[in-house]
């Protein structure tokens, strides 16, 4: 091997070593930040999570977390507003599983029913049926799917809902999904995420897909 080729190999090796060292230093710094955050997070209690925005994935995330909780042997309550009459892949699986309690509003989308009074009665009925979940310490997670609509249309009294959530068992977590979550939900939430729509297949004329959209 010529001297120039040997030197080139050494230079390349040195670059790789420096790159590896810089990566290790960055990861060590990140680890210290993460460890410090873990050390600060000492409070042990359930959380209120609000998933809102006009993008796809809010209900999917909520149901995914319900599956996660079930995977740890926890009891789960699920209350579906708005989409209760639709065939629902998640419900088809979860309502058959032990440890899950399902409550369904029983009307369809508001633009289908076109009856605000009927929808309000249905929302109040399912809320009353499911309200006992918030006094049961064995229920570790309650998913209120599409509840923002019931609040925004004033089918439910927001103060009663907030009071109920505030007085739930200490280790119970709650997930609220739906578009247009108001500031009072953001203020009450421990975690508030907004899913932003960048593209959606429906806007390109692609039909909603069974197993993907529902």
In short:
The chain has 214 residues and is an alpha/beta fold.
How is the topology of this model organized?
Elements lengths: L2 H38 L7 E5 L5 H14 L3 E6 L8 H6 L5 E5 L5 H4 L2 H15 L8 E7 L1 H6 L5 H9 L6 E5 L5 H6 L2 E4 L20
Parallel strand pairs: 1-5, 1-6, 2-3, 2-4, 4-5
Task: Please describe what this structure looks like.
The chain has 2 domains: 1-42; 48-204, P-loop containing nucleotide triphosphate hydrolases (Rossmann fold). Helix content is 46%, strand content 15%. The protein contains 8 helices and 6 strands. The N and C termini lie far apart (64 Å).
What attributes does this structure have?
single chain; 214 residues; alpha/beta; Rossmann fold; 2 domains; 6-stranded parallel sheet; 6 strands; 46% helix
- Biggest sheet: strands, sense, closure? 6 strands, parallel
How many E-type strands?
6
Task: Provide the number of structural domains.
Answer: 2
* Number of helical regions: 8
**Biggest sheet, strands in spatial order?**
3-2-4-5-1-6
CATH-level-4 superfamily name of the largest domain: P-loop containing nucleotide triphosphate hydrolases
- Please mark out the parts with pLDDT under 50 across 5 or more consecutive residues, or reply none: none
Examine the coordinates and then state which fold CATH places here, giving the name of the CATH topology of the largest domain. Rossmann fold
| Distance N to C terminus | 64 Å
Strand content: 5-15%
Structural class: alpha/beta
| Helix coverage percent | 40-55%
N-to-C order of helices and strands: HEHEHEHHEHHEHE
Classified by CATH, the class of the largest domain is Alpha Beta
Give Rg in angstroms: 24 Å
Anisotropy-based shape: elongated
């Amino acid at each position: 091997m010529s001297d120039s080729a040997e030197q080139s190999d050494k230079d390349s090796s040195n670059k790789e070593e420096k790159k590896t060292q810089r990566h290790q230093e960055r990861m060590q710094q990140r680890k210290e930040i993460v460890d410090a955050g873990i050390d600060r997070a000492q409070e042990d209690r359930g959380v209120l999570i609000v998933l809102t925005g006009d993008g796809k994935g809010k209900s999917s995330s909520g149901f995914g977390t319900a599956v996660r909780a079930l995977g740890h042997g926890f009891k789960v309550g699920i209350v579906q507003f708005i989409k209760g009459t639709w065939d629902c892949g998640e419900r088809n699986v979860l309502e058959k599983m032990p440890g899950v309690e399902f409550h369904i509003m029983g009307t369809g989308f508001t633009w289908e029913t076109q009856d605000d009074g009927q929808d309000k009665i249905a929302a109040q009925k399912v809320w009353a049926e499911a309200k006992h979940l918030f006094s049961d310490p064995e229920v570790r997670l309650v998913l209120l799917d599409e509840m923002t609509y019931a609040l925004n249309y004033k089918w439910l009294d927001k103060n009663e809902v907030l009071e109920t959530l505030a007085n739930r068992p200490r280790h119970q977590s709650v997930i609220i999904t739906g578009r247009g979550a108001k500031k009072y939900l953001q203020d009450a939430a421990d975690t508030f995420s907004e899913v932003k729509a960048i593209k959606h297949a429906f806007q390109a004329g692609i039909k909603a897909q069974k197993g993907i959209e529902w």
